[in-house]
Write a structure and sequence with these properties.
With about 180 residues, this protein is α+β, with helices and mostly antiparallel strands. The protein is built from five helices and seven strands; from the N terminus they run βααββαβαβαββ. Strands 1-2-3-4 form a four-stranded antiparallel β-sheet. Bound molecules: coenzyme A. The site of coenzyme A (COA) has 19 residues, from β4, α4 and α5.
Amino acid sequence: MPELLLPTARLHASWLAARAEWPAGAHQDGTGLRLAADLDLDTPEDFAAWVELLLVQSDRTLPLPEGAVHATHWWIVEDDEYLGAIDLRHYVNQFLYDRGGHIGYSVRPSARGRGVATWALGAVLPRAQELSLRRVLLTCDEGNVASARTIEAHDGVLEDVRPISPRVKKRRYWIAL
Ligand SMILES: CC(C)(COP(=O)(O)OP(=O)(O)OC[C@H]1O[C@@H](n2cnc3c(N)ncnc32)[C@H](O)[C@@H]1OP(=O)(O)O)[C@@H](O)C(=O)NCCC(=O)NCCS
């Protein structure tokens, strides 16, 4: 049975094993990897520094860099094994309204197709309610069937499909809380 844990440096080895399953440099939605752009996550020191950046992003009393929003990050963990990540942005800016939504998630390739993302989204929706959000926006690329099904499993209502570049369209869903 998976659980949601706040990021922890304790899972460094498991996180590295998960990263090795992704193509090099792949974007992992909902992981906050962008915050680690200047860090070498192979080293325990930089990994711990990234974990700290993930943790403090939820502190609404702290200012954030331009373009960033306050967000809570969780890792999806089972028997101390990192399976993936999910984050909840406390509010959306224009970029997130158009493209990213309130919630992002990724599951490591070896853990896919067994309900992990569907479970994790279900576990985060009550956390969004605790932030007094009345509805949350979720988006996925058109063609990302697994993500669309994850959202639809939680009664996501499709608002529109928005072109964001000549080749990419975003499906934008709202889930009422
Ligand atoms: C999208 C993603 C998070 C799904 O994770 P997952 O744990 O495999 O999802 P689940 O097992 O909960 O499955 C969710 C639904 O997708 C379906 N599904 C899973 N993999 C699929 C695939 N490769 N093709 C089609 N459907 C798929 C499942 O059958 C399930 O639908 P159902 O409930 O109707 O049967 C995972 O594929 C991933 O990390 N992808 C890369 C990152 C990403 O796209 N993140 C989302 C960005 S919006």
